[in-house]
Amino acid sequence: MTTPDSRSTHPHLRDDASTDALPVSPALGASLDAARMPRRSTLVEPRVLFVCALAVLLGVAAAFIARILVKLIDLVTNLAFLGRWSFADVSPAQHHLGAWVVLVPVVGGLIVGLMARWGSRAIRGHGIPEAMEQVLLNESKIPPRITFLKPVSSAIAIGTGGPFGAEGPIIATGGALGSFLGQLLHVTGHERKVLLAAGAAGGMTAIFGSPVAAVILAVELLLFELRPRSLIPVALATVAAAGVRYAMVGATPVFAMPYVAEPGMGALGVYVALGAAIGLVSVAITHIVYGIEDAFEKLPIHWMWWPAIGGVAVGVVGYFAPLTLGVGYTNIEDIVAGHFAVGALAFLCAMKFISWSIALGSGTSGGTLAPLFTIGGALGALAGFGVMAIAPQLGVDPRIAGLVGMAAIFAGASRALLTSVVFAFETTQQPHGLLPLLGGCAAAYLVSALTMRNTIMTEKIARRGVRVPTEYAADYLEQVLVRDACTRDVVSLRTKDSLGDVRHWMQSGRAEAQHEGYPVVDDAGRVRGLVTRRMLLDPSEPGNRRIGELSLRPPMVVHEHHSLREAADHMVAENVGRLIVVGVDAPHPLVGILTRGDILSAHARRLKEAHEGGRHIRWRASSRAAQAKR
Predict the structure, then answer these.
(1) Most buried in the list 176, 330, 390, 585, measured by CB within 10 Å?
(2) pLDDT digits (tens, 9 = 90+) for 201-231
(3) 460 with 586, same domain?
């Protein structure tokens, strides 16, 4: 028997030991060979090849679905505004309906309301929050009917003049397709999430030709992690989708910009300040949109009719400002190309915001990216014209200011910082805008994070009690080894100890003799198994019997070089509260015991580094030391 007195390297087990912490499956040959031990974690496993293959197929499928959605929007637009059956790319602004144009969005809203009422309520909104909710709460299981209902409802809403972009619906549709495939096949919940994100990212790539931004969007808003096993499949899906898009429509940027000069230091400072101001605007817009949604909630009529009511606002605004109708991608291109005059910019910005915010608050189906880009781009360009008139020596370009404004408003509203920067760069292919984008979006993100708890993407589901991750940090437990956190003071029994001697020791009343279980080691220090207090006190066992002759239970073992993450996962998988820690080298001697409490205590260092400030270099002391050396 090894006690604190006889073996100083193995003092007692913790007083909170219980039989719940011990394995319950007896083994015929109790030894370390029979012990269950966690596997070493790896970056990826061969299974990821299967997921990658599925992701590539999803990328291709999402690209074709995106083209179908675009053509469906064109068809509805032609039918609703021009009265012809055609898939030609047209703008609702080209209509000749006069005042009758007010009724077109109303009819579209009515159809969408009926589809939501009798099809699925999940088609309401811009799609990304709903996908986030399914990822966080429902193992990424989206109802299959969304794959069909979302693009059709969005095509009707946008084709009849809704001031939305096609990106939100196709992201939701691609995600639903990935989820559907993940429900058809035998995959894990994590793999289903990866497939959902791959479909969503593929859809976004097919619309905008922005594969890198699509990957980052998936990380920031859908995956909530940055791991090779999820990043690689999503990246391959976007590459496949981009290849299909290039084959069908070419590789030209969606929002082409003319050449602009590299900004100087003064202009760069203006762009950063502009980003901060746009960040405040993004916060205000988020509150206004959800305020309008709350107002619709108070209406004494069924929500099925709300999109039609929102359609009235869309139609009235569209009558006075036809450019607000439809997706408006050409508006964004004209803003960053500098084709709008100041008055036209201000009018478009105000009218687009009124139309979009009321329509979105009514619960119709459509995306937020394009409207936000239009509003933010117009505000940025207006600010650029103002600074250029007041301080021309700063060298501010209204086109770059518009580019910064459109990206910063999305960065502030959604807090998808890197997505906003890379997306604006990929869709314009303007290298001299990259640094202003980074500074402006970072400033907008900072202002938004300081002044708003939730975002335009998360506010809706946060109100339903869904907690959305906001930070992605490296797993601290993966950085700490078991040997640095385990309790090394362990009471163990020897295989050669007699049961009588052990019982006599247990009756001594000493604290270390009151535990509910003990590891058993042989003369070489190898762990042979576990023995419980009940087994030791079993009256049917004679006192002259050796501990090693008992039917020992196989130990739950972890090597001292395992990480705490591997050990914690092993505890959960085996439903135990402590693990025996052994050495790596033969004969694998007993090192200690790792408990749940030890794992929690390991976080003390992390909390200290995060919250406790200190000054480690003092200027006066350093100066005195330098003088003393002289």
Answers:
(1) 176
(2) 999 999 999 999 999 999 988 888 888 999 9
(3) no
